[in-house]
Amino acid sequence: MIQLDLEKLNKEYLDKSPEDIIKFVVEHIGISRVALASSLSIEDQVLTDMLIKINPRARVFFLDTGRHFQKTYDLMDETMQRYKFHYEVYAPESKELEQAVAEHGPNFFYESVELRKKCCEIRKVNPLKRVLGTVDAWICGLRREQSLTRQELNIFEWDSSHSIYKINPIAFWSEDRVWEYIKKHNIPYNYLYNNGFRSIGCQPCTRAVKPGEDVRSGRWWWEDPDKKECGLHVRVGGTV
Ligand code: SF4
């Protein structure tokens, strides 16, 4: 794997566009060893647009938990048609999921924090490990503004839990800037955003938020805010 000077790159690319950041990563790491994680959020739609325009052979993956909103699956179809590409799809291991549902019931994620985390582990974290085992860098749509735990986010990071690079090209973008890009390029987006949803994950664990509420307050709303992550984005000192 190529060695990147993260500190230097973070200074050098602070004022550069996300497209410049993506081009650097694709050129230096290689198109087959980089993948964009998409949950079909507005951020991921922006990055999909940029990445596919830079290289139509780019890898974009989707973790199909089996519990997404129908509107998310519809958007996936629409996006595939718009950009004429296919997502790499990673689903939970059937045995693991079958056992958990048989033992705890179909809605076991509501039972306790531990079982909720177990569900995220089976449906998201473990499939993520499989895809990240095939790359040297993953691109994510995380932004500093999204939550207090993301305030320290950098553009170029080392993901120590997967031993690969993690690239956050829009780490410094505001939500307004994301929407400007979506509108300007007429990018398809999940219409749930028009109904008060601001961070969209699995249907049973996502709800709309009121104006002024934290962007991520509609995710796992019944839990303590400190524990509200699915384990996909682990950093030294906690999850983001
Ligand atoms: Fe399970 Fe909810 Fe996590 Fe989706 S967000 S994997 S349904 S606990």
UniProtKB/TrEMBL annotation:
Stretches assigned to the Phosphoadenosine phosphosulphate reductase domain: 34-208
Chief location: cytoplasm
Source domain of life: Bacteria
Binding positions ([4Fe-4S] cluster): C119, C120, C202, C205
Cofactor note: Binds 1 [4Fe-4S] cluster per subunit.
Co-factor(s): [4Fe-4S] cluster
Reaction catalysed by this enzyme: [thioredoxin]-disulfide + sulfite + AMP + 2 H(+) = adenosine 5'-phosphosulfate + [thioredoxin]-dithiol
Compartments, as annotated in UniProt: Cytoplasm
Pfam families: PAPS_reduct
Active-site residues from the entry: C230 (nucleophile)
HAMAP family xrefs: CysH
Function of the protein: Catalyzes the formation of sulfite from adenosine 5'-phosphosulfate (APS) using thioredoxin as an electron donor.
Family: Belongs to the PAPS reductase family. CysH subfamily.
Name of protein: Adenosine 5'-phosphosulfate reductase
The gene coding this protein: cysH
